[in-house]
Amino acid sequence: MKLVSAVIKPFKLDDVREALGDIGVSGITVVEVKGFGRQKGHTELYRGAEYVVDFLPKIKVEIAVDDAMVDQVIEAISNAARTGKIGDGKIFVFELEQVIRIRTGETGVDAL
Amino acid sequence: MNSIRIPRLLRPLLAVGLILTPLLAFAQEEATIDTGDTAWMLTATALVLFMTIPGLSLFYAGLVRAKNVLSVLMQCFAITAMMSLLWAIYGYSLAYTDGGSLQSVIGGFERLFLSGMTVDSVAGTIPESVYMTFQMTFAIITPALIVGAFAERMKFSAMLVFMALWLTLVYVPIWHWVWGGGWIAHLGTIMGLTEEGGEALDFAGGTVVHINAGIAALMAAIVLGPRKGYPGTAMPPHNLGLTVMGASMLWVGWFGFNAGSELAADGTAGMAMTVTQLATATAALTWMFAEWINHGKPSVLGIATGAVAGLVAITPASGTAGPMGAIAIGFAGAFFAFIASTKLKRKFGYDDSLDVWGVHGVAGIVGAILTGVFAAPFLGGAGLAGGVDSIGVQVLIQFVSVVVTLVYGGALSLLILLVVKSTMGLRVNEEEETMGLDLSQHDERGYIL
């Protein structure tokens, strides 16, 4: 099993959610995050006082999937979240040791 | 502003000789109450109070950081309450009534504790109680304006003491000089420029209110020193929504301030409303475009600040300028206030936190000077002051009245600040400042989320 963690532009969340639904992903976790990458921050200006805001708001989407699904998931997120402009985000893939469904106690792929 | 309303036909007579006589006594003998005027002035009084609470206090509340939101609301509210009492106890009497042999510098004690003011007392064509309360709302907003300069770091107790002394030693005398028949009311004659009259034109309070508050604010910003971390640390406004609401209320309330300063429901009041709207609209757009050109985006804070600068600039001219003159005054007021608030403040390094000097002081000066220009009939104005025959002379009188306000207001404000600083201290300590004034001064938080 793999844990796919994707940092995306906030306005792309609905598209990504839909694309993942279309390929049969049954659950995702969404977190509002802040950070910087190549896009860096932005500046705000109040009556001539300029403030550099280092961290931009992003959305982190986490999906736990079966190994067989990983490439499909990466493709779906990439296509849905891509604008072609700087700041589109990144996808991280981790090995996932164990999954447990709390209600039933099921484990592994059955719990996905 | 006319300290009382004199019927138009009588004005030349007054200009010739009666200007020095006690206007109140004159009015009480001659005038009766006009219900239309009274209805409007009751409304205008409510509008001017609305400017301070909630208008100005929201304008300021949004501009500070979240940990200080209550402190500025509290300061404006407490000033409203305290000035009401001080004005009734002695402020009004010393400002408005005849000072006898000292008339050119200060008023008298006739209305101390409002003694003698009854339901039958008349000022011009309105009850004196309405007139006194209308002026009370001016004595509230003027000190409240200064709050923006020392926001986020002044001790609440020191603020109260400073404000009480400032009203007494600065606001009341200047009010008397300009509107109470004091020496600025016939400045041209004193300067030898006119044979009689020669008043510095200040319809609704360019010198008395805005320049006065502005220079006191600058002194306070300098004496208190910058906020901890200024200018290196980011201190962005915490809620510009509040600020825009406050600015909008100021705009609405200002009709009471300017059109109300006619003290009557007449043509001059109507024109004051028109020119106030036009100057403010022009100023809002001026600031918006200035920022758009300078920084690439039109900002919400910019357009709201521009509107306030326009309201300030048109204030002294609102009884004399015509509509197109108002547009010129609004443009100039916002342009210079923009330069002062966004460029000069950074250059000189003082922390006038919410730009009281930059907006009220600078736009007030621009407005006061241009009042002398756009009062001229050939520029659409209602006419220069009595005894003044050229724009040049009027502008010179305006200029001197500005300088007098700056010098006297600046010097006395500085003195009061230094006295308070050496006796009780002006600032909270560093720990309290970092914690925020809401918690350190009031044991409360603005936002419990």
TrEMBL record, chain A:
UniProt keyword Phosphoprotein, yes or no: yes
The keyword Transcription is annotated on this UniProt entry: no
Keyword field: Nucleotide-binding, Phosphoprotein
InterPro entries noted in UniProt: N-reg_PII, N-reg_PII-like_a/b, N-reg_PII/ATP_PRibTrfase_C, N-reg_PII_CS, N-reg_PII_urydylation_site
Any Gene Ontology CC annotation: cytosol
PROSITE patterns assigned to the protein according to its UniProt record, in alphabetical order: PII_GLNB_CTER (PS00638), PII_GLNB_DOM (PS51343), PII_GLNB_UMP (PS00496)
Any Gene Ontology biological process: regulation of nitrogen utilization
O-UMP-tyrosine modifications at: Y51
Protein family membership: Belongs to the P(II) protein family.
PANTHER family: NITROGEN REGULATORY PROTEIN GLNK, NITROGEN REGULATORY PROTEIN P-II
Name of the protein: P-II family nitrogen regulator
UniProtKB/TrEMBL annotation, chain B:
InterPro entries linked to this entry: Ammonium/urea_transptr, Ammonium_transpt, Ammonium_transpt_CS, NH4_transpt_AmtB-like_dom
Family: Belongs to the ammonia transporter channel (TC 1.A.11.2) family.
Signal sequence, renumbered to the chain: 1-27
TM helices/strands, residue ranges: 39-60, 72-92, 130-151, 158-178, 203-225, 237-257, 269-288, 300-318, 324-344, 356-376, 396-420
Gene name, Swiss-Prot/TrEMBL: amt
Name of the protein described by the UniProt record: Ammonium transporter
Pfam families reported in the protein's UniProt record: Ammonium_transp (PF00909)
Coiled-coil spans in chain: none
UniProtKB keywords: Ammonia transport, Cell membrane, Membrane, Signal, Transmembrane, Transmembrane helix, Transport
This protein's GO CC annotations: plasma membrane
Superkingdom field: Bacteria
Subcellular localization(s) per the UniProt record: Cell membrane
Glycoprotein keyword on record: no
Residue ranges of every copy of the Ammonium transporter AmtB-like domain listed in the record: 39-447
NCBIfam families assigned to the protein according to its UniProt record, in alphabetical order: amt (TIGR00836)
Molecular function (Gene Ontology), one example: ammonium channel activity
Membrane topology: Multi-pass membrane protein
Keyword Transport in annotation: yes
